[in-house]
DNA sequence: AACTGAGCCAACCGCCGGCTT
DNA sequence: AAAGCCGGCGGTTGGCTCAGT
């Protein structure tokens, strides 16, 4: 069974020979690919257009970065995957010179195992049930015991759909409260509405505590209010597990705030990723090194850190968490 | 040296959405 | 509106490599 695009012609399959590569490179560098379906014929190849496209994108493109992934790239993949899920093409956009196929293979062969070794579910980035130890839960954070466990897996799709945020909104705007109302617990505009202007909230959902019970349509960042399920993942970079620390600031938070804070973290990272995405597109420079890239690693790190650890000198300071 | 199993990765498969006719 | 084409994407597979026995 072949692709519909090549079912009518005799096509070669399997690995590409150097001669085929040369033909394809010569043709595309001279003429561009134009319509991929016509490339094989014009380039003198016994392949289908799809195969040519794939070969070019994944292997022959001159701007590809070869070699193993750096720890920085690995970290980006994990961070973005936590937000986007298995959207490899989107993830690859954050890694100049890497392809979706490459990222996907790297994830399946390497990162997945690392996360599992850390006791993390690679799909949800949450701790696997067998790894949810009392050591973590007893570390000054008790609302995890009272909150229901998420009934749905972490889903970026649901997050993007249900809590999509206008990525054109300036980050500072996104984080601004109505200036006349300094009481966090009763802002003039509910914070979750501010963050998610497109969301339609029922009266019941407007109460975050009840919201936590309506799992199916709510992003898991809400349902994982402590955020400490990500702790080990973050700590894996330092090579040793650091138990979650809930700061005094966090303990002072109202339950609503405790719920919202990790969501804000997630929003912040989403916004930053979108920003990086946009900048990347604008630059359209696949040769850009990470040194030159506009992806703010420090920011990503800070925003993705668990609660109580994440907002050093970040715009999050604008929030009066301890008000 | 030969065998074997695991891991990696290039390539394929099938589905989907957008566009054209 | 429907059908066909095409590019893009994520999931899967098959073959190659290499370490271990």
Automatic annotation (TrEMBL):
The keyword Transcription regulation applies. SUPFAM superfamilies: Homeodomain-like. One of its GO terms (cellular component) is nucleus. Keywords: DNA-binding, Nucleus, Repeat, Transcription, Transcription regulation. PROSITE patterns: HTH_MYB (PS51294), MYB_LIKE (PS50090). Residues 8-60, 61-111 form the Myb-like domain. This is Uncharacterized protein. InterPro entries: Homeodomain-like_sf, Myb_dom, Plant_SW-associated_TFs, SANT/Myb. The keyword DNA repair does not apply. It comes from Quercus rubra.
